[in-house]
Design goal:
Layout: E1 9-13, H1 18-29, E2 33-38, H2 41-53, E3 58-62, H3 68-82, E4 87-90, H4 106-134, E5 138-143, H5 156-176, E6 181-187, H6 208-219, H7 222-231, H8 236-248, E7 253-255, H9 261-279
Parallel strand pairs: 1-2, 1-4, 2-3, 4-5, 5-6, 6-7
Helix pairs in contact: 1-8, 3-4, 4-5
Length: 295
């Protein structure tokens, strides 16, 4: 199969470590110019050094994904260095703080939504116009989660944020298809990253979240369980190769864990059963043959 990535440019948020860095390495080895953007500037410098040692063309940009101006600056820097941008990987994300619906602080919800949802919106709004303008097509990969395909008890904020990422990806796939821009939602289960340590890069405006995180770490087994699950996950290098494979076969949903097929299929069966219930309803059954109207 021909290398459709060589000579093109990718910008990857959260690119200094974890999934982001693995994708930077993988796409760099396929001949792409790589722009890694991250809030952790120490780790960013180290990641840049490693990519340079691997002879991968790389530009490093400091980036807080909740700050749209910083996104614009990263895009401008990328274009000045490499020209057109062909790929956007909205990877930066946080895991939140495990908690029930009644004890998860509103500040935690805001933090998770600002990073995991608005960070993706900011990145796409900053990059998509230039991708449409150059007319060469490209890819937008939004890193969601298997949690975005099915709710997870005691992780409501995280699951909701990732469900939003899946839905946005579906919406944008329809919008951008005519521009030859493929949009995919990457939905892994557990991967060996540091997402369970998300509080390490907490921005100043969300410092109240740290109090809840510290309390949870000292009073429950949740933090240790999260660490165990993450460390039991697949290597990021395996995920990166799977992403390339899925892009080459044109997948809108990129799954890395086929063992989750059954629980997701069960959710689908519940949805189908709910439609059957509506069809049998004397209140709304008359709508079943109506034409489906969309915007």
């Amino acid at each position: 199969m021909s290398n459709q990535f060589a000579g093109k440019t990718a910008i990857i948020s959260g690119g200094a470590g974890g999934i982001g860095f693995a994708l930077a390495e993988e796409f760099g080895q396929l001949g792409m110019n790589i722009v890694i953007a991250d809030i952790d500037q120490n780790q960013l410098s180290e990641a840049q050094r490693k990519l340079q040692e691997a002879n991968i063309p790389v530009l490093a940009c400091a980036l807080d994904v909740t700050n749209y101006q910083q996104w614009q600056e990263a895009v401008t820097a990328a274009q000045n260095e490499f020209g057109n941008i062909h790929m956007l990987v909205n990877n930066a994300g946080v895991g939140g703080v495990p908690g029930s619906v009644d004890d998860t602080k509103l500040e935690t919800w805001k933090w998770v939504m600002d990073v995991n949802v608005m960070g993706v919106v900011n990145g796409t709004q900053a990059v998509a116009p230039s991708m449409k303008q150059h007319g060469q097509g490209g890819w937008i990969i939004n890193v969601a989660s298997m949690a975005g395909m099915n709710g997870v008890p005691y992780s409501g904020a995280y699951a909701a944020s990732k469900a939003a990422v899946v839905s946005m990806s579906e919406s944008w796939a329809g919008e951008l298809k005519k521009h030859n821009i493929a949009v995919s939602a990457l939905c892994p289960a557990f991967v060996k990253t540091r997402i369970h340590e998300s509080l390490r890069n907490l921005q100043d405006e969300y410092q109240e979240v740290k109090d809840q995180g510290a309390a949870k770490a000292s009073s429950s087994k949740g933090a240790n369980k999260a660490k165990e699950l993450v460390e039991s996950g697949i290597p990021t290098s395996v995920l990166a190769k799977r992403v390339v494979e899925a892009l080459q076969s044109g997948q809108t949903y990129i799954f890395t864990h086929p063992n989750f097929r059954a629980p997701i299929a069960y959710r689908s069966s519940l949805l189908d059963a709910a439609f059957a219930d509506a069809e049998n309803s004397p209140i709304v059954s008359h709508l079943k043959d109506d034409e489906i109207k969309m915007l």
